[in-house]
Amino acid sequence: QEYYPRTGRWFEARAYPSEEGLAVYFRDITQRKRAQEEIEFLALYDPLTQLPNRRLLTDRLQHALATQGRSGRYGAVLFLDLDNFKTLNDTLGHETGDKLLQEAARRLTEALRQSDTVARFGGDEFVVVLADLDGVAAAAALQAEAVADKILAVLTRPYQLGEHQRHMTVSIGITLFGSADDSVDDLMQRVDLAMYQAKDAGRGTTRVYSPEMRASMQARVRLEAELREGLERGEITAHYQPQFDMAGRLIGAEALARWQHPRRGVVGPGEFISAAEESGLILALGETVLREACARLADWAARLPAADFSVAVNVSARQFHHPGFVEQVRRALEETRAAPQALRLELTESLLLADLDDTVARMDQLKSIGVRFSLDDFGTGYSSLAYLKRLPLDQLKIDRVFVRDAVSNPNDAAIVRTIILLAESMGLGVIAEGVETEAERAMLEEYGCGALQGYLLGAPVPAGEFQHFLPDGGGSVPPHSL
Ligand code: C2E
Ligand code: CA
Ligand code: CA
User: Fold this and answer.
1) pTM
2) Which of 93, 254, 301, 433 could form a disulfide with 312 if both were Cys (CB 3.0 to 4.6 A apart)?
3) Nearest CA to ligand 1 atom 21
4) Using a 6 Å CB cutoff, which residues line ligand 1?
5) 256 alpha carbon to ligand 1 midpoint, in Å?
6) Does 209 have pLDDT greater than 70?
7) What is the dihedral of CA 412, 413, 418, 421, to 10 degrees?
8) Measured between alpha carbons, how far is 409 from 323 in angstroms, rounded to an integer?
């Protein structure tokens, strides 16, 4: 028998019959009791943040599912994933990372009601369970989203760590639960999917699970499988879009991936590049395009009088940062005997900024082989002069949105002019993409742009048709067909 007197200690009482009646012995078992509590705590709570752990969360969810089902009201599960925690943890050290997690846990607990559950699910993942929301699904979803907004607000406030201030964003997936036939597993699968969709949509956003998400996920999985087969069967090739200088002389081509699909015909990269990136297939795909482009380059360059013909190849972040990338480029050049100086790799700003030190090192390695670089979609990203100066670039490529709007919009015209001046001042070449009209061409010429690419001058065509752009290829420009 145990009891808890005002002293705050635990005693065990035992009674024995004795000659005077009943003898009661008390034994102080406080220590044993504390140890037991400690063990229970460790089994159910996260020692770092003091929040319920995954196991206790599962228990609570099970309970919530059972009771919510009967109440006719909805509940919601929110899955939170800190977006840049891993980077912060790696750069600032684990101790600081721990502090950050503790602070995030504190803010979460403060922002929520006593009746809500906040749990630490794993590394930088938290789960919130909201009970007793509205009985109408749409209204319950709005309530859950309002809570998610509040969470976003508190978690994105700056974190003071020593003398540094840090910022974090968080992606939140939400799913409702109501009917008793939901299982904890289903729930966690749904909310996980919603969280990934939130991440996909850009960091710091919220997504509520919908059945369509599952369908689009399944479609994505199917697409990946098909793309894998397509790659193996050699269905991925490149089309080539000509590039001209202002005098109308052919100076190069951009290789653009195309999927010769057995049923659907020619499929553009907009439909498969992101799937390729996510699945890692981009490595094989990128190598295919790179090799083919180098082979064409060697062939075409030999047939051109001017030495300055180049072929541009788009490179994804994942491909560029892959340890074998430099070697891949070196081999493609060697085996095709293409001149390295005539290969232009098109990189994007987001790719460069992902890991600036690694980027610069890699670019220098490639540069030493002779390869040149063009900064694609210029103007749409961060465009900071500070990093531009650090990179061994050769060319800026003005994004087509500016070209398209510059004729009608003075702001875009100013951007185009600034990019051209900037390129000039840094000793870089400049090419405009997406040139579709004579008015656009004339404006670019007036601003001093160096080169042009776009439907006005030639759409991307299969390699066989690209011959027509070469001086010995028959001379006539092919119809503007995609
Ligand atoms: P991007 O690098 O900005 O490529 C230019 C896109 O603009 C191409 O679309 C091209 O067909 C299109 N375009 C060309 N001229 C015009 C024009 O006058 N007007 C308009 N509206 N569009 C024009 P595409 O071929 O669908 O490629 C889309 C994107 O896919 C590319 O954008 C590039 O980011 C990516 N991509 C293409 N091939 C590859 C590849 O081999 N590897 C990687 N990583 N990405 C690729
Ligand atoms: Ca490009
Ligand atoms: Ca572009």
Assistant:
1) 0.72
2) 254
3) 434
4) 241, 256-257, 268-270, 273, 286, 289, 314-316, 346, 376-377, 400, 433-436, 454-455, 460
5) 6
6) yes
7) 150
8) 43
